[in-house]
Amino acid sequence: MSRQFLSGDVKKDVDETRESLHNLFSLLLTQQRRKRRAVAQFAGVFRESIFKNLQPISVGA
Length: 61
What we know:
Blueprint: H1 3-7, H2 9-52
């Protein structure tokens, strides 16, 4: 066995890599949620503005 393995350096590197991947994945999920909320909010505001600005249509006058 190598000295690195026996001293625990390899395990430490693996643990740090796992933690880094977890943090990056969490950040990615957070950004995706924010983007979805922003898009949904924009769609809702856009939809409301269309329906609020509808004018009655007069037929056969």
